[in-house]
Design goal:
Length: about 300
């Protein structure tokens, strides 16, 4: 039990994400968010279920979350996990389990959620063995920059690339830009990029249900990627034509708008499908095959 919530102040965990940290085929750690904005880590490393518990405790031995969102905004979708992309496992000092946890906030469960306009966010939090990571002092905020347009002159969503010092920082976050926008489906970690979809509902009965944005952000910083991720100009290839500009600087697009409710993306090679709509994205690096080396043996 997380000991958060009661019969009069109800709470619930969202779908958990499972981690086999040592690669032995069994789950060692579980991550799940709740309606109070807590991201919990559960320690399942022991061979007996009697030893399984919330991974962290506070000063009075009560369960403590890994992280709590700004203004306790609810977490209702499964997070996605990845080994830290730039920090190797370390024992002195220990940074175990050395896992980045990516998740967004927002709720779309009851009728009143349709008209909610709370500011929601997306987070990348490093679990290096410390509880109660604070969004204000431990995370670096990325912000949306104005004035960028694509090759057709359309306004483009671009995030800052504020540096993150992982010797002192625990990750990053940014606030979703639209009123009522929320992240209520699971993200996907793919290579060095985190993909997720947001949703802005509508109460108009004549509408298809709202709209959302397909996001792709750098896994390490939470900002715009250094190289284009989307085939923004729909040329069939991802190249310089997919960058955006403010007249002085160039950057990369972090989100594309799509109508309707946006489920989590599904990838088939270099195509990302959201519902029936496909967007070409940066492909994964080819895995080498065949002979890697040879040695001549002389008799």
């Amino acid at each position: 039990s997380t000991e958060v919530g009661s019969l009069t102040d109800t709470n619930a965990l969202a779908t958990p994400a499972l981690a086999d940290i040592d690669g032995n085929g069994t789950v060692d750690r579980v991550y799940a968010g709740d309606l109070k904005g807590n991201m919990w880590a559960f320690d399942l490393e022991g061979t007996s279920s009697s030893s399984w518990k919330v991974a962290y405790e506070d000063s009075v031995s009560a369960p403590a979350p890994l992280f709590t969102t700004e203004n306790n905004r609810p977490i209702t979708a499964k997070p996605v996990l990845a080994k830290h992309p730039t920090q190797p496992d370390s024992s002195s000092p220990s940074n175990a389990p050395n896992i980045m946890v990516f998740f967004g906030t927002g709720q779309y469960l009851i009728d009143a959620d349709k008209s909610a306009t709370d500011v929601e966010s997306f987070y990348g939090v490093w679990d290096k063995g410390d509880e109660n990571v604070d969004f204000a002092s431990d995370l670096i905020e990325q912000t949306f920059e104005t004035g960028f347009t694509d090759s057709n002159g359309n306004s483009a969503l671009v995030l800052s690339r504020n540096a993150i010092d992982y010797s002192t920082d625990y990750g990053w976050y940014f606030k979703l830009p639209e009123s009522g926008e929320r992240a209520v489906t699971s993200p996907i970690a793919r290579a060095d990029t985190v993909f997720f979809n947001s949703f802005v509902p509508t109460t108009d009965p004549c509408s298809v249900g709202g709209y959302g944005f397909k996001f792709a952000v750098d896994m390490t910083t939470g900002g715009s990627s250094l190289e284009p991720v989307f085939d923004a100009d729909q040329s069939g290839v991802i190249d310089e034509g997919d960058t955006v500009s403010n007249g002085i600087d160039k950057s990369t697009l972090v989100a594309i708008r799509q109508e309707g409710f946006l489920p989590e993306p599904v990838f088939i090679e270099d195509l990302a499908f959201t519902a029936e709509t496909a967007t070409r994205v940066k492909g994964l690096k080819d895995i080498p095959s065949g002979r890697f080396s040879w040695q001549e043996l002389l008799q």
